[in-house]
């Protein structure tokens, strides 16, 4: 019995190989280019990403959900730089977490991953070329933190019900479910094109409220989805748009070794937590994210009223999804 337990907690070789490769290349580059002096400038971004990457691995939130408001509003880093950095750093952190999830054989829902990703790919391209140029990042951030808090409240209300039925995958999966997942993935992809993250938490709402899939399954599944989305986003900005800034590269370079460790650490921690523990962690993240945005952005009365409206409508929407949940 003891040997089985040891087997389950062993660190997967595929993650160790990736970590060793990343750290070796990073150290060689830093040494050969004498780049260690960047930490004198980037210590604040590193501290932000240590916390952000752990949250990314331990929840359906990407690290950009933590980094975006701090980088843009406190550290005064331009939104396009922050977004491109988010794609780049998540390509390391989320990939590390995904390899740990796969290597540890954590339970995930592959129907969720496949069909949301299909919609997410389309949404990311549409958002990058036709939405991002016309959206105010601050207004969009206020909208989404309000919407996500409404989801957290609705999920908390559902989890208070002792008779709530929970599944480990989407039940009676049909073509109509493929359509729902693709549509939510499409919208999530557009959100990710703005912030560098978003498809994970947005589709997580559908999985836990409508399909009643356990947070313990939906969370690692959402990490895999965001990994795919972030690698594609990085490809778009480095190879197609060629707008990846030197500033984004320097911040990425400073954060790489920390994110490669703390993101999978978050994934490992949630693998040991009970379902309700994961849900509680998410509640706290969404609350802190909302009030943190309020404190940092200092919205006007009109913006505050719109946040309240989104919050009320969001609670209504997610409560409705809970009532008409898939049988």
Describe it for me?
The protein is mainly alpha-helical and 327 residues long. The protein has one domain (11-323). Helix content is 80%, strand content 0%. It contains 13 helices and no strands. Helix 3 (39-58) runs antiparallel to helix 4 (63-74), helix 4 packs parallel to helix 12 and helix 9 (199-210) packs antiparallel against helix 10 (215-240). It is globular, with a radius of gyration of 19 Å.
Q: Give the helix/strand class.
A: mainly alpha
Strand content: under 5%
Secondary-structure element order, N to C: HHHHHHHHHHHHH
How many domains would you count in the coordinates?
1
The shape, in one word, is globular
Radius of gyration over C-alpha positions, nearest whole angstrom: 19 Å
Count, helices: 13
Mean residue pLDDT: 89
- First-last Cα distance: 38 Å
Number of E-type strands: 0
Major sheet = none
**Helix percentage range:** over 70%
Question: Stretches where pLDDT falls below 50 for ≥5 residues?
Answer: 1-7
Q: What is the subunit organization of this protein?
A: single chain
Highlighted features:
single chain, 327 residues, mainly alpha, 13 helices, disordered N terminus
Question: Layout of SSEs?
Answer:
Elements lengths: L1 H8 L3 H20 L6 H20 L4 H12 L4 H25 L6 H21 L6 H23 L15 H21 L3 H12 L4 H26 L5 H26 L3 H23 L3 H23 L4
Helix pairs in contact: 2-5, 2-11, 3-4, 3-11, 4-5, 4-12, 5-10, 5-11, 6-8, 6-10, 7-9, 7-12, 7-13, 8-9, 9-10, 9-13
């Amino acid at each position: 019995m003891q040997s089985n337990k040891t087997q389950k907690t062993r660190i997967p070789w595929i993650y160790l190989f990736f970590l060793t490769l990343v750290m070796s290349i990073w150290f060689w580059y830093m040494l050969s280019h004498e780049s260690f002096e960047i930490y004198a400038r980037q210590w604040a971004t590193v501290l932000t990403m240590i916390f952000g990457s752990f949250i990314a691995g331990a929840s359906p939130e990407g690290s950009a959900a933590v980094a975006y408001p701090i980088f843009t509003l406190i550290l005064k880093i331009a939104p396009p730089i922050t977004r491109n950095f988010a794609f780049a750093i998540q390509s390391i952190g989320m990939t590390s977490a995904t390899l740990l999830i796969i290597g540890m054989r954590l339970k995930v829902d592959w129907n969720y991953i496949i069909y949301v990703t299909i919609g997410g790919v389309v949404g990311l391209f549409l958002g990058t070329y036709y939405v991002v140029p016309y959206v105010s990042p601050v207004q969009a951030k206020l909208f989404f933190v309000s919407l996500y808090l409404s989801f957290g409240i609705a999920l908390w209300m559902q989890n208070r019900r002792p008779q709530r039925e929970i599944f480990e995958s989407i039940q009676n999966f049909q073509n109509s479910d493929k359509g729902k997942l693709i549509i939510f993935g499409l919208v999530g992809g557009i959100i990710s094109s703005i912030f560098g993250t978003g498809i994970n938490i947005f589709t997580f709402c559908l999985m836990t409220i409508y399909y009643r899939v356990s947070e313990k399954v939906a969370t690692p599944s959402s990490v895999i989805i965001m990994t795919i989305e972030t690698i594609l986003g990085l490809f778009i900005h480095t190879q197609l748009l060629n707008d990846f800034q030197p500033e984004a590269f320097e911040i990425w370079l400073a954060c790489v070794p920390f994110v490669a460790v703390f993101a999978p650490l978050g994934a490992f921690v949630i693998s040991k937590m009970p379902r309700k523990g994961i849900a509680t962690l998410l509640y706290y993240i969404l609350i802190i994210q909302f009030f943190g945005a309020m404190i940092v952005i200092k919205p006007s009365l009109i913006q505050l009223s719109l946040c309240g409206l989104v919050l009320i409508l969001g609670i209504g929407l997610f409560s409705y999804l809970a009532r008409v949940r898939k049988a």
